[in-house]
Amino acid sequence: MLQKGDTAPDFELNATPDQKIKLKDFKGKNVILAFYPADWSPVCSDQMALYNEMLKYFNKYDAQIFGVSVDSVWCHLAFEENRKLHFPLLADFEPKGAVSKAYGVYDEEVGESKRALFVIDKEGKIAWSYLSPVAVNPGADGILDALEELNKK
Amino acid sequence: MSVLKPEINSQDHIQGDDSASITIVEFGDYQCPYCGDAYPIMKEIEETFGHQIRFVFRHFPLANAHEFAFPAAIAAEAAGLQNKFWEMHDALYENQYRLNAELFDELAETIGLDLEQFQKDSASEEIKTIIEDNFDSGMRSGVNGTPSFYVNGTKFDGGATDLYQILKESTE
User: Fold this and answer.
1) Cα separation of B15 and B46, whole Å?
2) ipTM
3) Lowest CB count within 10 Å: A53, A96, B87, B121, which one?
4) In the β-sheet with A89-91, what is the strand arrangement from edge to edge?
5) In this structure, are strands A126-132 and A115-120 parallel, antiparallel, or unpaired?
6) Does B140 sit within 8 Å of A44, measured CB to CB?
7) Do A50 and B2 make contact, defined as CB atoms within 8 angstroms?
């Protein structure tokens, strides 16, 4: 798993069937990558739903958040619509898990991304990373601490 | 381990004795069904452990997922300005099954609030700020869903039933 100080590998992933997100287009902005195993976990405490409530706080730190899983764009679209998510979910779908692998957070055995967080600074360097047990929603305190740290610089 | 930030202060709604040895903080949402399930268990905890327990509630409305969560938090805070926060808190959970935009005034009347003042306070920016500060506190304390509990300032990884069990074991 990539750590603080590593350069964040660039990627180009679909957010919708006809919109691709390139990491390098976000130079000059802080980026949060939230890798997670799968869409449709059946609870209120869903990690993506939680981040959805925090977008304006992330905004305050000039940070854009992306969710990343191996689900397809169509699955993401349905999930976003159902949960009224207002940030992009990226499909690490073809080749499957390639970006998760590049960040060192792919679980080969189950074929899903692990539950991992990265905060990437405005120059494209990883400022903070965290691997959570798959069953535990890590919340956002680590992300906010990392963003606050970046703000001090 | 996630810890409660900021610590309990004069802004908080607190039930129970200041001298209690165990302080429980709940981050909750009035429309969240799991918080609704936790409500009677928290009552039971307060009854069973009496003076040993101090209970604090902070708002963590998942406003995108639950359309009435934020207005309900406002109603509780507005009732708080008439010293009836806990009466509204209880009424909201007891009537969660029929939560809607018209319910707040009805509950305000039921618990005996000055309705005009309640409506005026409900529209105030100050109350919005209090709820946003509570939410901010939750994010910084590592709230990862509702309800989230903190026992003596440290995040408790479990629900209200687990909490009851642990308390039972530790006070036996």
Assistant:
1) 9
2) 0.85
3) A96
4) A19-22, A12-16, A89-91, A63-69, A30-35, A115-120, A126-132
5) antiparallel
6) no
7) no
Structural domains in chain A plus CATH codes:
12-17+28-152 (3.40.30.10)
Mutate to test the interface with A, among B66, B135, B140 (most CBs of A within 10 A): B140
Q: Are B161 and B39 in contact (CB under 8 A)?
A: no
Q: Do A50 and B63 touch (CB under 8 A)?
A: no
For residue range B10-52, what is the model confidence (pLDDT) as tens digits? Answer: 999 999 999 999 999 999 999 999 999 999 999 999 999 999 9
The model scores a pTM over 0.95: no
Calpha distance B61→B64 (Å, rounded): 9
Tens digit of each residue's pLDDT, chain A (153 residues): 999 999 999 999 999 999 999 999 999 999 999 999 999 876 656 899 999 999 999 999 999 999 999 999 999 999 999 989 999 999 999 999 999 999 999 999 999 999 999 999 999 999 999 999 988 899 999 999 999 999 987
- Which string of b and e fits A81-119 if b means at least 16 CB within 10 Å? eebebebbbbbbbeeebebbeebebbeeeeebbbbbbbb
Q: Which residue has the tokens 């399930």?
A: B37
Chain A positions touching B136 (Cβ under 8 A) are: 57
Q: Are B30 and B88 in contact (CB under 8 A)?
A: no
Query: Residue written as tokens 């958040």?
Result: A65
B85/chain A closest Cα distance in angstroms: 24
SS3 A74: helix
How many other CB atoms sit within 10 Å of the CB of residue B153?
Answer: 15
The label of the residue with tokens 């039971």 reads B44
